[in-house]
Amino acid sequence: VFFFFFFFSRSGAKFVAPLGCLVSRQKHTLPDLPYDYGALEPHINAEIMQLHHSKHHATYVNNLNVTEEKYKEALAKGDVTAQVSLQPALRFNGGGHINHTIFWTNLSPNGGGEPKGELMEAIKRDFGSFANFKEKLTAVSVGVQGSGWGWLGYNKEQGRLQIAACANQDPLQGTTGLIPLLGIDVWEHAYYLQYKNVRPDYLKAIWNVINWENVSSRYAACKK
Description:
CATH architecture of the largest domain: 3-Layer(bab) Sandwich
Distance between the termini: 18 Å
Strand order of the largest sheet: 4-3-5
Number of domains: 2
Helix content: 40-55%
Protein name: Superoxide dismutase
Strand content: 5-15%
Order of helices and strands: EEHHHHEEHEHHH
Structural class: alpha+beta
GO molecular function: manganese ion binding; superoxide dismutase activity
Number of strands: 5
CATH topology of the largest domain: minor pseudopilin epsh fold
Family: Belongs to the iron/manganese superoxide dismutase family.
CATH superfamily of the largest domain: Iron/manganese superoxide dismutase, C-terminal domain
EC number: 1.15.1.1
Enzyme class: oxidoreductase
């Protein structure tokens, strides 16, 4: 679990001390993929998956650990200026680690198709149909300017599903309050080697490897 330093809400931003800097903690580590790098081909090729996981995600993890150590030192010294200056790096690298950890589980070589059970009923309730949901999440993801993510999240207060976009590596829950269920990475490193600059083709392909079992499990857990 990751704790960020500004909690964003409609009433503004509140400063929150990071738990990792208040108690002893283990360093963050790069999670193993639950499948081989080439398992998602032809939809996402092995070279992309290897670079994305072992280079990009690993960099977020490494930088997060370094930044947290610096923040711990600044906290011990009572250096508020240093603490504030480190927060963008914590947000970026912490978000990158959170987002990718979810992303890998949202994909599966046995994915695709449509969800079943409670999740499907919720999608029909909140979007009219699965086709409408798919079209809306695709459009939001295509429309991200520059780098970012398209998300299906759960609004616990309202008890409904929502679609949202986040810039860069901003984590969904930390910036919108929505609980992340399904994230689609639209940074160019997620698709450029295979799809060049044609983001819509990548988004069309990724629906073939969406792990609906995982998304459904996340939905069931967040309702408890």
